[in-house]
Amino acid sequence: MSSREGRRHEDDGYEPRERRYRRSDGYGHGDEDHGWSGGFASRGGRTIYGSAADDLLVGTAGKDRIYGLAGHDRIEGGNGDDKLYGGTGIDEFVFAGQFGKDEIEDAESGENLTFRDLATTDLSFATDGDDLYIVANDGSGRVQIEKYFVYRPELSINGTPLAGLLARPVGSDIVGTDASERLRGTAGDDVIDAAGGNDRVDAEAGDDEVYGGAGNDKLEGGSGNDTIAGGAGNDKLEGESGDDTLRGDGGNDYVEGGSGVDTAVFSGSSEDFLVWGRSGRLQVWDTRAADGDEGRDFVKDVEVLQFDDTTIELTAVSPSALSSFFASGPITAAELDSLLTAAV
Question: How many other β-carbons are positioned within 10 Å of the β-carbon of residue 78?
């Protein structure tokens, strides 16, 4: 039980009451509503307050701030990026349709998050510092629970304890949104699609598939034999342990294999690329942008370069056999070793 809880009522029954206050009664100021138990017709966001009773508080299509105050409240932000404050009492937070990017500021043990259009299997989980993110796999929105990992309230999602959902050591399909996020995999074989935004992905254990999508992403494979694709943008790909397959795709990417036998994949014929041992760094340049520009990539701790027409095993052949492939000219064994492990 959360140390912040200790505020349960004797009767947990939900009986919403409609209470309205005029601004002339001295409650609030500006674009605010108090004790309102229904929706609002507004083009912008509102600040909405509950009462000491059990309220039904429904936001607008804008960016709302909703305060439940006392009582067992049911709070629905609606569309838009909302900030939700339950207050004292055991509250229910409801999310439906395109609910946007919402934040729950003071979640307490015993409270439930209801996703009307989604099952728990349609949700993914990510962390950023002390905060927990619950992400709809269909892109309809996400919910940020602030300080979840500080207070660890005993919450439920659609009636299922959240702690059990977070503990599942199985592979998952995890889908991000167009915002910048931090996504974390499980101990199983995950498929993680970060979608848009400048994201950070930690796939953790398992043989994972990671797709960065648009944006400048940092993608970490963790342990296992992972497949990582950067997508558009200037990405940083780190295979870490295991035999990984890394594809920078568009943009100027940094590709690091880590331990194991790792492969950097480039789309196109080898004649469309220049491989440089330049300034102590191994670089692979796409020279035919019209065919799909893969940019100019830095490569480190990678044992294999794979093109559509050929595969070059960098550590399996002599430097002299590789010299014709390097645009920078003949190289020695020491130079090749330095290039493969050079820091960028």
Answer: 23
Q: Is residue 59 domain-shared with residue 99, that is, in the same domain?
A: yes
Q: Say how many Å lie between the first and final Cα of the chain, rounded.
A: 47
247 falls in which pLDDT band (50, 70, 90)? Answer: very high
Q: Which of 140, 167, 194 marks a domain boundary? A: 167
Nearest residue to 68 via CA among 80, 79, 59: 59
Read off the pTM.
Answer: 0.57
Residues 183 and 299 in one domain: yes
Q: Are 28 and 47 in contact (CB under 8 A)?
A: yes
My answer on whether 128 and 230 are in the same domain is no
Q: Are residues 161 and 241 in the same domain?
A: no
Closest residue by Cα to residue 323 from 267, 270, 261, 276: 276
Q: In this structure, what is the dihedral angle of CA atoms 64, 132, 146, 83, given to the nearest 10 degrees? A: 0
* Residue range 13-31: mean pLDDT, rounded: 36
pLDDT at 73 over 90: yes
Residue 343 amino acid letter: A
Q: 250 and 122, same structural domain?
A: no
Residues pairing with 151 in the sheet = none
Domain span including residue 338: 170-344
